[in-house]
Amino acid sequence: MADQDVDKLRSEVTKLREDMRSITETLQEIAAGRAEQGYDRVKDGVGQARDSARKAGHAVESQIEDKPFSSVLLTFVIGLITGLLVQSRR
Q1: Residue 14 near residue 21, CB atoms below 8 Å
Q2: pLDDT confidence of residue 88
Q3: Residue 84 domain-assigned?
Q4: Which of 18, 69, 70, 78 has the smallest number of Cβ neighbours within 10 A?
Q5: What is the CB-side half-sphere exposure of residue 1 using CA atoms within 13 A?
Q6: b/e string for 36-69 if b means 16 or more Cβ within 10 A?
């Protein structure tokens, strides 16, 4: 009778190992799928950010070409303000 109990216990442990292996594989598949989705989202976000930066760059270029004097004056004022702020922190 003890041998039957030991054999039954071994069988249950073997089944438990197989179940744990199956659960581990399923979790790995889920994690891989989510990682791939996250990568795709990041990739799309980077593409959108690149497009936005490119559009902003073109907008700045056209603004400078349309109004060169105003652009130089604005740049000077921004530099002056930045210089005053940096100097006041010392």
Answers
A1: no
A2: 74
A3: no
A4: 69
A5: 0
A6: eeeeeeeeeeeeeeeeeeeeeeeeeeeeeeeeee
Interatomic CA distance for residues 22 and 16, integer angstroms:
10
Total domains present in the chain: 1
Residue 86 included in any domain:
no
Half-sphere exposure of 75 (CA within 13 A, CB side): 9
Residue 73 lies in a domain: no
Residue 87 has pLDDT above 90, yes or no: no
pLDDT at 5: 83
pTM listed for this prediction: 0.50
Full residue range of the structural domain in which residue 38 is found = 2-65
